[in-house]
Amino acid sequence: MFKNKFIKLFTAATFAVVGISATSTISNLNTSTVQAAYAHNVGAFHYLNKKHTYKTLGLSEGFPSIIKLDNGKFYIDDDNLNTTSMVNGPAKTNGYRYINNTKYYRIPVKNSNVDTIYVAAKYFTKKYNDMSYLTVYRVNSKIKALSDDMDNTDDGMWYGKGDIILVNNFSLWNHDKYVDTISPMQDGKHNADGWFTPQEANFGGELTHEDFKNHCSKASANTKFLLNHGEDWYTNSSLARGGMYHKGHFYKVYSR
After folding, report:
1. What is the pLDDT of residue 236?
2. How far apart are CA 224 and CA 110, in angstroms?
């Protein structure tokens, strides 16, 4: 069914909570002899400036982290099988150090029993920040949207006049005869059964190229594609810069 086909659109559901959180616990760090490993060759810490102030790297989503334990050791999960800490939200740092000859930013952690986490600097690069294939469009008249499942089934969903949708110009899910779209359908008004998405998630839908051409047009630069109760949004302007607005402030977005 269409309502079971969600698109995890970068920050669509993960940035509802402001700040940086560490998920899960570290109770099994010392008990696992297979997955757990401790970092060696840990270099000295370098502050970004003399005042030790923080700078914002951008919005981040689910990067594997190295954890500094209370005993001063650094825990690594080389295979990412037991990642115990992930950064979600505005990521800030006041400095970096080299761990196993790789540069890592120090990220403060809230509401966690770990001392410090470090995230590889490589994640905050353009490679993890390319949103150029997304575009905000406006629907000019009612149009049927097919499910983005393997069979592109008709589940009674539609886009109405004035709806703002996000178009994925390059997509693994997209087929030659369909245009891959994403819609913030949060109230169920566009679904035949009146169902709505939990936690304000986004739906993915497919349009034929003919319907897309006849019923949709590119939105103006600052037209908002809303996320998370309207606290976050994309515009064609922000997408061109590789980011989004989070509670009125622009951030670069880094997502694996």
Report:
1. 96
2. 30
Q: Which of 42, 117, 128, 127 is nearest to 83 (CA)?
A: 117
pLDDT digits (tens, 9 = 90+) for 94-118: 999 999 899 999 988 765 666 678 8
Amino acid occupying residue 253: V
DSSP-derived letter for residue 74 is E
Q: For residue 34, what pLDDT is reported?
A: 37
Q: Which pair of structure tokens corresponds to residue 72?
A: 């001063």
User: How far is residue 204's CA from residue 210's CA, in Å, rounded to a whole number?
Assistant: 18
* CA pair distance 68, 76, nearest whole angstrom: 9
Name the nearest CA neighbour of 216 among 175, 152, 161: 161
- What is the C-alpha to C-alpha distance for residues 66 and 28, in angstroms, rounded to an integer? 15
Q: Residue 135: pLDDT above 90? A: yes
| Torsion angle, alpha carbons of 103, 108, 114, 118, to 10 | -10
